Amino acid sequence: MFSQNGYSTMLVGSASDRPAKPEALLDPRLLARLERVDIRSNKMFPGKLQGERRSKKRGQSVEFDDYRNYVPGDDLRFIDWNVYARLDRLFIKLFLEEEDLALHLIIDASASMHAGSPSKALAAARIALALGYIGLVNNNRVTLSVFGAPGAQRIARLPDMRGRRHTRRLTEFIINSIWQDDTGTLAPSGPSGARASFDAALNTIARLRVGKGVMVLLSDMLIPDGYEQGLRSLSAASGSSARGSGGGKGGYDLHCLQILTPEEIDPARLLERGLSGDVRLTDIETAHAAEITLAPDLVRAYRARFESFTSTLNEFCTARGMSHLLVRTDQSIESIVLDSLRRTGIVA
What we know:
Largest sheet: 6 strands, mixed
Structural class: alpha/beta
CATH topology of the largest domain: Rossmann fold
CATH class of the largest domain: Alpha Beta
Number of helices: 10
CATH architecture of the largest domain: 3-Layer(aba) Sandwich
Number of strands: 10
Order of helices and strands: HEHEEHEEHHEHEHHEEHEH
Helix content: 25-40%
Mean pLDDT: 81
């Protein structure tokens, strides 16, 4: 159901679909395939620690790159004495410097994300774990922030991690942060609370960003009072531009993954399942109710508003150097990560 300034979920929240155990979040066979994938950035980013990403800068790794003439003051350890013996000239060996890339994942776990079966929250958890796992096995720095979860009063943040040994820690953090209140009851947050949760959370995350790299927001973007302020905070802090250079002070490539259920994309599915006539809808974010007549004419109007909303969001993101990708909860995680995210340029 649309609100005055945006689009708000029309589905009733489902009971909690929290995974029974960490291993249930992703299939081990998919994890094996993800080991052959890497996080992609538009340019090489300098990191705090030595990593596995080849830099355009010259450094002191073990991988030889080129020579240059010796000048007084150069470190004598890097003179190639074999070349000197043949040419009677001094050359300095140059090596590729290795850098690490920071991957910051942001999950919106607000009430509307718990709608659908399977829920959007579950899809976000699986995508985040897949991307986080890719980052960990490639020795990148992985950070995770979760905001808006029912019962949560603040942002849950998992600091930088490196290495596959942190996979279980990442998995458990995702599950425990998204499903903090596992009662299956999703209380509306109210209009002012919904705005504060989204805008304030993204503003805080933007200010606390660490390093440079890739930042991925996973949300349905169904914010009653609009998503603009929150996305502006991320864009301004990242130093993004319309060209998506990833430069500036923050130096993050930004990606917005909008996760929606098939029924939110096309409510004609509800008609196909026999749901029609007069119905009462309650917005899970604001608790506002509306009585409508679910009929083909209303579905057509809904589709038009939905397309306008997603088109405007896409243009808003593009103008600020962010990519926007619409993800359906009925897509397989394998298809999302290995196909859709590859085409978007998040993984390679």
